[in-house]
Design brief:
Number of helices of chain C: 7
Shape of chain C: elongated
Shape of chain B: globular
Oligomer: heterotrimer
Strand content of chain B: under 5%
Mean pLDDT of chain C: 92
Largest sheet of chain C: 3 strands, mixed
Largest sheet of chain B: none
Low-confidence stretches of chain B: none
Order of helices and strands of chain C: EHEEEEHEEHEEHHEHEH
Number of strands of chain C: 11
Strand content of chain C: 15-25%
Chains: A alpha/beta (971), B mainly alpha (319), C alpha+beta (260)
Order of helices and strands of chain B: HHHHHHHEHHH
Mean pLDDT of chain B: 95
Bound molecules: ligand MGD, iron/sulfur cluster, molybdenum atom
Radius of gyration of chain C: 24 Å
Helix content of chain B: 55-70%
Structural class of chain C: alpha+beta
Structural class of chain B: mainly alpha
Distance between the termini of chain C: 82 Å
Strand order of the largest sheet of chain C: 10-1-11
Radius of gyration of chain B: 21 Å
């Protein structure tokens, strides 16, 4: 009996060769927008294990916590099970289960009435959606301009600033040259969409001995491993960056050749104060922008391949007026002593000496430690370069920049800094991911102008786009908004992603007009994606005098019982990500890498065990029933009888251009462009559900100016013509808006917005205090409050996940040690946090690595009682909280009594992180529970009992085990 | 350490049982306890019942009681296994002693041998119990020279209190001597315990959060966030620690119930010896109950004041 | 007499964890759970999975610490802001100690250390769930299964690392494969030429609680020194000097331009 000394395997044989499962299916993860490749192992039809696909270009085998918890996401007891029709009051959670046919019929009835009358009365907004190519097209075929995805409250500041400045941006647009960079500056990133690649990249940066600087008020996650942490005051990055620019200019540390070759720095800017073209570029008769050629001392078009442009010095234009290169204006602006480190240090909250040192480091790495690759390449002029020269300084930025009302300009300032260092798309710098770079901006312009919208008529183009000037705004003759979210109006002219965060309150107010149906998909608007959550909930349930809801109809597609489901009139239950086809398309948000474009699909890995349908299928079916062009044939039959896979294969946006780039053409040999291939999806499946192309070595850098790459991009359909992408340090488009505000041209802002447009449409990056800081008394609200993404949780939907909710089952409010001491607050104390709008109560955690004026918490951990099929006493509702309750969606009244949204004035990006607060210790009798609390949501029919314990996986070993049901020790 | 009720019951009752068994066996050997059936039945049954309740409690504390027998296999390395083996082994002479005393009422060498073996077995079992704790380097409050003596002395003390009460109930002349033993064991046990407290209160902690995290190059390390937001097995099992103030109060209470009160009651019983026998017997029984209650609190403290090294990973600066 | 292997195992398989790159993402935590709940120690069960006081058995957990620099007093170093502390994310699983008291205390022999590779395992069908091994482990690396009543611990993915059904490159512990920050390395620490041994040598890999004498196999690589002052690698030696003002404001630009 004794087993003493039985340490050898022969005594304790273990089956170390057990097969993982009986079937493997590849697909794509859906737990965030990183879209990693996954390899799903199935055993007896159940999911045994999900691992990262080692061959996948994005994640190369790794998988984050969320992805690894896919099993629990898929088997969540909060999954909806059948279409629901509301029978009780909104928010009561009383529904009746209906058949799909009835659900589709109801929706068709509602929607066709609208389409016959006024398509604008449909507001179709999608949230965390990764199929905007389809939803946007659907909206425009329906004919409503009132469409957007979540970008407006997410990170449009980054996208817009990038696209208007360098024709690319961060995340799927570009990334640091992880392998070669010697210096990385990361601004305001906790996790980002590119979650896994960033982590892998940081590991490379560290392994290579490069320096990693994190600019972030909070030292966790990425910032924790930074070689240097810059814990500045939130919202002051612009000032900090422009101070770096000041230092570089002071020392003459700019890449002048790079500026002259690849940017609009040499473009001549007309200097004629008061003229309608003041501040615009000087052009010749052929409408070519002019530069001064220093060799010939003549004005020459910027496209002249022989041009040797000057960057400084005023010149006289043929019409006698004066002009200066954009560079000179830029240099002059940032040589202002107001940007000197000593002048900004206090405001930014870091020592001037640190700013000076960081500037010196940037210059040192960029100019003294350049990288030279022995790789010849040819630029757009046809000039061959023997080497590729890299300024190995890279930058990355995200919502710490974008979620402020000065985010657009701050992000532009980052790009300016990159450009003057010559570090855009060079070895060791920032790298574009195809299809980027694209023209600045890429076009098209938004559709939905007066006349674009008519009953039973598609829009002439997509509802979202890129205005080039005031004429492209979606406003009526009085300059009033045409869209329900007021996107592309004078309030927020460059709101390229729409403004989802304004829809509910505008629709409730009937401003600019009432809508009939709000159709939402994957957006938890009654909770974590709303500012001012409590009032948003009220708006959804508010009624007119006649007893009608102010927002008369609400159709919602969710896969789970989120807070928002309870407010829908018609619920269209979606599948989980392992049950459907999806497409990660270059027409949408692609998964390309700097080394080459890529796209991917999701395939059904398991069949749904509930009466649910993929939303894409539902949308196509609705399109067919509504008779939308492109989705229904003349005889009324659906264009894609095979549903979404049929659409993926056969739908063409332009001839030869469809959802997927790989294996096009009838024989499957074409890439990028080509006729539909009936076997395309099978090809993807055979290739582990992704496709990737590889750029030639000479195409890998300087893509904005690289002849070979630009030709390739044009062939692939990424850009219309093989023309260079000129980096915009000076934005003429911005100046056009400013000129309009100054009284020029036929399209001018209404008086109300004139000053605002004039102020914020500066052609050069600008810093101003975030609006909440400007409008609040700093004494009354001395602190900043922000959130961070927890790496192991995805917004609201991680909380139904039995594994992830053990990691983040509730959240604390983090305050700095200094603040804690000053306020006499200790770890675990409960405090009230007040903003000018509201207050919340939460429990304290004290930390050291935190800017002393900042408090923070993890985003979206707090849950409404009853939602997500969690027990009523679950910690998410009693110990968790949302910071959102403190954030007002509107700014205080301006002089004219008008209340702007809490957004960036250029792009309309929701300014979540502008928030200013103060704190107060809670009294003991106020209880150990977070506030505010909301009435418990009732569970709709169909949500089952949740188990008291989980033994997931036991069955796999019972099935195979030969030792009492256990794998391993064989008897 | 979490003072799990079953473990407290186990060590307190089985300690008292083994103490009683040891004394009764030795007294039997020396004839101080005569070969009287009811005396044997009462004293040995009480000892064995206490031991058995204790062992059962500890068995039901297991995740798989039905496999408890497997615990006998690793006596060569594991003190827990040794304890199990010794407990079982001790049952044999003790059981035979019980049978012999009741049924044969014999008075011979075999009985003496059984008694001796029972006493030895009991003592060794208690030592094993003590060693389970004393051998755990992870818990400095247990891993010291005092732990085994504490177990032994409290077993002796509670055993003596019970034995004394029994001798009074049976009106045995040995009672006088036992009274002295009770007083001495009370003094002895609490002296040992006091030294133990002294030791754990003054011994500097040997690990800190810096060595636990390997971050010894830093001046100070503190926990920012625990791995999961709710308590896990480790925190429930090992994270429990009583506050200093509360502990001081409980130490006093333990001393009062386990030491002062039994001492005073024993003196009272001695004084009452001249009266009707049952008065002294009741007083001595109360003394025993009080003593056991005191030891129960002492045991609770033994756990609640024991700090596992793992607490370093959950926020304690030193351990 | 002990039930640890009599001869030191020929191989000492273990993990090397890089505290300098771990970002605390919990990927290793969840992937470990996912792999193992259906693997050798199946299941790793959970209590109250959708209610209050949710808990479960996990073989790997990530703690977060804040560590104060020794030269804290010197906080004004070249103007570095509030740089007195380093946040350290700290993953912890079984360290597969060479002197594993968790093995010797086990009364049933369920706990054992493999002779050929040093992996410490629990043979669950022998385990009585007494919990003593978890008491004997200073590192908190053993957890009682809340519904199974048996002890769970890191198996070093014994059912992956030798598994011929898995492609060779993937024959690594699940947590190592999945770590996006490449902060986890697996190998033989008895072999001085293995990549893990070299890493340990290069980066000054350290033991946790060496004073306990358990001689853990797993090693931790310390955070690299911060670089927030002049004269550091990847840095500069002093502030920038002003450009020569010759040629007037921005006169230096022309000198920077080259002909091409
Ligand atoms: N305080 C604060 N608030 C914020 C932010 C912040 O930083 N701080 N960040 C903002 C940002 S950037 C964003 S993007 C938003 C995100 O907020 P939301 O867009 O609301 O995102 P989620 O909470 O992820 O949930 C979206 C919904 O999608 C549902 N869903 C999940 N999977 C599926 C599926 O397969 N099909 C369907 N049909 N539905 C599904 C979920 O159940 C959930 O109800 O939050 C914003 N809110
Ligand atoms: N695990 C996980 N991944 C996600 C998500 C998720 O919910 N979970 N959500 C996805 C979504 S929708 C988005 S939009 C992205 C967002 O990805 P991130 O941009 O990484 O998101 P945030 O958590 O908002 O991070 C903002 C960071 O900026 C810092 N910060 C705040 N204000 C300032 C400031 O003024 N200046 C500077 N320099 N820093 C500041 C905060 O401390 C925080 O670290 O993440 C995506 N990825
Ligand atoms: S980062 Fe994580 S959640 Fe996002 S796609 Fe990749 S594995 Fe999935
Ligand atoms: S997966 Fe890697 S980076 Fe993430 S917590 Fe684990 S060790 Fe750290
Ligand atoms: S870490 Fe703990 S469980 Fe693992 S071998 Fe060491 S003592 Fe045993
Ligand atoms: S819990 Fe199991 S493995 Fe641990 S000591 Fe007890 S019997 Fe051994
Ligand atoms: S080696 Fe395997 S069992 Fe151990 S922590 Fe890593 S994944 Fe978990
Ligand atoms: Mo977002």
């Amino acid at each position: 009996m004794s087993v003493v000394g039985r340490n050898h395997t022969k005594d304790r044989p273990i089956d170390t060769n057990q097969k993982i499962g009986d079937e493997v299916k590849y697909s794509t993860c859906y737990m965030c927008a990183c879209r990693c490749g996954i390899k799903v192992h199935l055993k007896d039809g159940a999911i045994r294990y999900i691992e990262g696909n080692p061959n996948h270009p994005i994640n190369k085998g790794v998988l984050c916590a969320k992805g690894s918890a896919g099993i629990m996401q898929h088997y969540s007891p909060a999954r909806l099970t059948k279409p629901l029709l509301r029978v009780g009051e909104r928010g009561a959670g009383e529904f009746k289960e209906i058949e799909w046919d009835e659900a589709l019929q109801t929706a068709t009835m509602w929607l066709s009435a609208i389409r016959n009358e006024d398509p604008r009365k449909l507001a179709f907004f999608t949230g965390r959606d990764q199929s905007q190519a389809l939803t946007g097209w659907w909206a425009s075929q329906f004919g409503t301009p009132n469409y957007a995805a979540h970008g407006g409250f997410c990170s449009v500041n980054m996208a817009s600033a990038g696209l208007y400045s360098i024709g690319g941006s961060f995340w799927e647009f570009g990334q640091p040259d992880w392998d070669r960079t010697k210096y990385l500056m990361m601004f305001g990133v906790a996790e980002d969409h590119d979650s896994n690649p960033i982590k892998t990249g940081l590991a490379k940066v560290k392994a290579n001995g490069a320096k990693f600087v994190s600019i972030n008020p909070i030292k966790t996650g990425y910032s924790a491993i930074a070689d240097e942490w810059v814990g500045l005051n939130p919202g002051t990055d612009g000032l900090f960056i422009l101070s770096l620019v000041y230092e570089l200019l002071r020392a003459g540390k700019v890449d002048a050749d790079y500026l002259a070759r690849y940017t609009n720095a040499p473009y001549l800017v007309i200097q004629d104060e008061g003229a309608p073209d003041h501040g615009l570029f000087a052009r010749d008769e052929a409408d070519e922008i002019l530069c001064h050629d220093r060799k010939s001392n003549q004005l020459r078009p910027c496209s002249d391949p022989e041009l040797q442009p000057s960057l400084t010095g005023a010149v006289r234009l043929p019409d006698g007026r004066s002009a200066v290169p954009a560079f000179a204006l830029m240099a002059q602006a940032y040589s202002d002593p107001g940007y000197a480190p000593d002048a900004v240090a206090d405001r930014v909250g870091i020592p001037a000496e640190q700013i000076r040192r960081l500037a010196a480091e940037l210059a040192q790495i960029a100019f003294e430690e350049e990288i030279v690759l022995d790789q010849p390449w040819t630029d757009w002029r046809g000039k061959r370069h023997e080497t590729m020269i890299g300024r190995p300084v890279s930058m990355h930025a995200m919502r710490g920049i974008s979620a402020h009302s000065n985010g657009f300009h701050t992000c532009r300032a980052i790009h300016l800094l990159q450009v003057i260092l010559g570090s855009i798309d060079c070895p060791g710098g920032f790298r574009y991911k195809p299809p980027f770079p694209r023209p600045t901006p890429p076009g098209p312009r938004p559709a939905g102008k007066l006349g674009d919208v008519a009953p039973n008529t598609p829009l002439p183009g997509p509802p979202l786009g890129f205005p080039m000037g005031p004429e492209d705004l979606l406003v009526d003759d009085d300059g009033q908004p045409l869209r329900i979210d007021k996107a592309f109006s004078w309030e927020n002219p460059l709101s390229n992603h729409g403004m989802l965060h304004m829809v509910i309150s505008n629709a409730w107010r009937g401003d600019p007009y009432p809508v009939d149906t709000l159709f939402m998909y994957m957006a938890n608007m009654a909770w974590n994606s709303a500012m001012n959550t409590a009032d948003t909930i009220k708006m959804l349930t508010d009624k007119n005098a006649d007893g009608e809801y102010k927002i008369p109809r609400l159709i919602y597609s969710d896969a789970y019982y989120s807070e928002t489901v309870a407010y829908a009139d018609l619920v269209l239950p979606d599948t989980t990500y392992l049950e459907r086809w999806d497409c990660i398309s270059v027409l949408d948000r692609p998964i390309c890498e700097p080394e080459g474009p890529a796209d991917s699909i999701r395939q059904p890995v398991v069949a749904p065990d509930r009466d649910v349908r993929p939303f894409q299928e539902v949308l196509l079916e609705l399109g067919a029933r509504l008779g939308l062009p492109g989705m229904s044939n003349d005889d009324g039959s659906p264009t894609y009888p095979g549903g979404y896979p049929d659409y993926l294969i056969n739908h063409q946006r332009k001839p030869g251009v469809g959802s997927l780039m790989g294996w096009r053409g009838e024989d499957g040999t074409a890439k990028g462009r080509g006729a539909p291939n009936p076997n395309q999806l099978q090809k993807y499946i055979d290739n582990q559900c992704f496709w990737q192309d590889h750029l030639a070595p000479d195409q890998l850098y300087f893509k904005h100016s690289n002849q070979s790459y630009l030709n390739y991009a044009a062939r692939m359909g990424f850009i219309d013509q093989a023309q260079p992408i000129v980096l915009q340090i000076y934005s003429e488009i911005m100046q056009r808006f400013r000129l309009a505000a100054e009284g020029h041209g036929p399209h001018q802002p209404p008086e109300l917005h004139r000053e605002r447009v004039k102020t914020y449409f500066d052609p050069l990056p600008l810093w101003y205090a975030p609006f909440e800081s400007a409008c609040n008394d700093e004494e009354a609200y001395p602190l900043y409050a922000v959130t961070q993404r927890p790496m192991a949780m995805y917004h609201s939907w991680g909380s139904q996940n039995a594994w992830l909710r053990q990691i983040h089952g509730s959240n604390r409010i983090y305050i700095s040690e200094g603040l804690a001491k000053a306020e006499g607050i200790k770890e675990d104390d409960w405090i009230w946090v007040y903003s000018r709008h509201s207050r919340i109560k939460a429990q304290v955690r004290v930390m050291m690595g935190l800017n002393e004026k900042t408090i923070w918490t993890w985003n979206a951990i707090g849950k409404r009682k009853g939602a997500w099929n969690l027990d009523r006493n679950a910690g998410e509702a009693s110990k968790g909280f949302l910071l959102n309750h403190l954030i007002d969606d509107l700014l205080p009244e301006q002089d004219g009594g008008y209340r702007y949204s809490c957004s960036d004035p250029v792009t309309g990006q929701a300014a979540w992180y502008d928030l200013r607060v103060r704190i107060e210790k809670a009294l003991p009798h106020e209880g150990a529970i977070t506030e505010p609390q909301f009435p418990e949501l009732q569970k709709p029919k169909g949500l089952g009992q949740t188990p008291a314990q989980l033994r997931y996986g036991a069955a796999f070993q019972e099935a195979t085990g030969d030792n009492g049901g256990k794998l391993g020790h064989k008897k | 350490m979490n003072p799990a009720f079953s473990v407290l019951i186990f060590t307190t009752l089985s300690g008292a049982g083994y103490g009683l068994l040891t004394l009764v066996a030795l007294l039997r050997m020396t004839d101080a306890f005569p070969a009287v059936r009811w005396l044997g039945f009462t004293s040995l049954s009480l000892a064995l019942v206490l031991i058995t309740i204790g062992l059962m409690a500890s068995t039901f504390h297991l995740g798989h009681p039905e496999r408890a027998w497997r615990a006998l296999s690793q006596w060569r390395s594991s003190w827990l296994s040794r304890e199990g083996v010794m407990a079982l082994v001790t049952y044999m002479p003790a059981g035979l002693l019980w049978l012999g005393w009741i049924f044969w009422q014999a008075d011979n060498h075999i009985m003496s041998l059984l008694a001796l073996m029972s006493a030895l077995g009991a003592i060794l079992t208690v030592i094993c119990t003590g060693m389970i704790y004393a051998s755990l380097k992870t818990i400095p409050q247990w891993h010291n020279v005092w732990t085994v003596p504490v177990y032994l002395m409290f077993a002796l003390m509670t055993g003596a209190l019970l034995c004394y009460a029994i001798s009074l109930w049976f009106g045995l002349p040995a009672a006088d001597g036992l009274a002295v033993l009770v007083l001495l064991s009370l003094l002895g046990a609490w002296a040992v315990k006091w030294s133990y407290w002294q030791a754990i209160d003054t011994t500097p902690k040997s690990s800190d959060i810096r060595s636990a995290t390997g971050l010894a190059a830093f001046a100070e390390v503190r926990l920012l966030d625990p791995p999961h937001t709710e308590e896990n097995f480790l925190m429930k099992e090992m994270g429990y620690q009583v506050g200093r103030k509360h502990a001081t109060k409980l130490r006093r209470l333990a001393l009062l119930l386990g030491g002062v009160l039994p001492f005073a009651l024993t003196l009272l019983a001695i004084a009452a010896a001249s009266g009707p026998f049952w008065i002294a017997a009741v007083i001595a029984s109360l003394a025993a109950l009080s003593g056991i209650a005191g030891v129960f609190i002492e045991r609770w403290l033994l756990f609640a004041q024991a700090q596992h090294k793992v607490t370093l990973y959950y926020g304690q600066p030193t351990a | 007499m002990t039930s640890l292997p009599q001869n030191p195992p020929a191989k000492r398989l273990g993990l090397v964890i890089d505290l300098d790159t771990c970002v605390g993402c919990h990927a290793c935590v969840v992937n470990c759970k996912e792999w193992n709940t259906g693997g050798y120690p199946a299941p790793l069960s959970d209590l109250n999975p959708y209610g209050a006081a949710q808990s479960g058995a996990w073989l790997n957990r990530v703690h977060s610490f804040e560590a104060v620099y020794e030269d804290n007093a010197n906080a004004a170093r070249d103007g570095a802001s509030q740089s007195q502390s380093r946040t350290v994310h700290f993953p912890k699983s079984c360290l597969h100690c060479q002197d594993a008291a968790c093995v010797t205390v086990c009364p049933t022999g369920a706990s054992y250390k493999r002779e050929e590779d040093g992996i410490v395992l629990v043979q669950e069908d022998l385990c009585i769930g007494c919990g003593l091994c978890s008491w004997a482990c200073p590192y908190g690396a053993r957890e009682m299964d809340p519904t199974g009543g048996v002890m769970k611990k890191c198996t070093l993915c014994i059912d992956r690392i030798y598994n011929e059904e898995i492609e060779e490159a993937q024959r690594q512990p699940a947590c190592v494969n999945t770590c996006p920050a490449k902060a986890r390395h697996f190998g033989d620490l008895a072999d001085p030429d293995s990549s893990v041994s070299k890493l340990v040598a290069e980066r000054g890999g350290m033991d946790l609680m060496p004073e306990m004498g358990y001689r853990p196999t797993n090693k931790y690589l310390p955070p690299r020194p911060r670089r927030d002052s002049y004269g550091k690698q990847g840095g500069a030696n002093g502030p920038l000097e002003s450009a020569d003002p010759k040629g007037g404001f921005l006169g230096w630009v022309d000198r920077l331009l080259s002909d091409d």
